[in-house]
Amino acid sequence: MRAAFRAHSANAPDPAELIEFAPADYFARANMSDVFERPAPLEIDLGCGEGAFLIAMAAKYPARNFLGVERLLGRVRKVCRLVVHHQLTNARLLRIETAYALRYVLPLGSVSTAHVLFPDPWPKRHHQPRRLIQDGFMEALHGILAPGGELRIKTDDQPYFMWMEKILARAKGYEQLDWPEDPEYPQTNFERRFVAQGMPIYRARLRKV
Question: Which of 24, 39, 40, 115 has its CA 20 to 30 Å from the CA of residue 145?
């Protein structure tokens, strides 16, 4: 039994355990059929946190598959249990660093939409190399996006967004798209808090070309 979950009995594993996708080989890209049994457009939530956005999207769009990528064990365990609680069959979790998932695990050309919502801004100058949005991130993401696949980013941090804009502008193989306010796009817990406080939300949307 995986240490992340607790079985109900010796012969009955926690159903949430089955929601987490553990690659058979962390040094080879997975087959899409290993992640989801049914073929369907795949959307990924990179740094899915406590899962509010992932759960809402999976419930709203049952014809799509959703994979949350999160490195923290406690969050993965919580979101897996939410997936079971909401009886969602189109959502799974991958516990791994985002950069590693893009470069080595996720299938090439498999992702229709990648969501990056309120990533850690790492505001101190000496911490900025830890920021998710980097030139290498954009290059690796391009490989796993399907033709015409999209990247959607939101942040409340204006300095980080200004950093992002420079990286997005020089990223090869993308075109930038308008992204007007969309009330149908679920909010993360962070976004609800920021909007309630009257804080501006910065967004970017790009498409692979």
Answer: 24
Write down the pTM of the prediction.
0.91
Residue partners of 198: CB distance under 8 A and separation at least 6: none
Look up 120 and say whether it is catalytic.
yes
Catalytic residue (choose from 14, 25, 34, 120): 120
Q: What is the pLDDT along the chain (209 residues), one digit of tens a residue?
A: 344 455 455 566 788 899 999 999 999 999 999 999 999 999 999 999 999 999 999 999 999 999 999 999 999 999 999 999 999 999 999 999 999 999 999 999 999 999 999 999 999 989 999 999 999 999 999 999 999 999 999 999 999 999 999 999 999 999 999 998 888 899 998 899 998 998 999 999 999 99
Q: Check residue 29 and report its DSSP letter.
A: P
Which residue in 43, 54, 101 sits closest to 78, CA to CA?
54
CA 171 from chain center: how many Å? 20
The pair of three-digit structure tokens given for residue 142, joined into one six-digit string = 């391009």
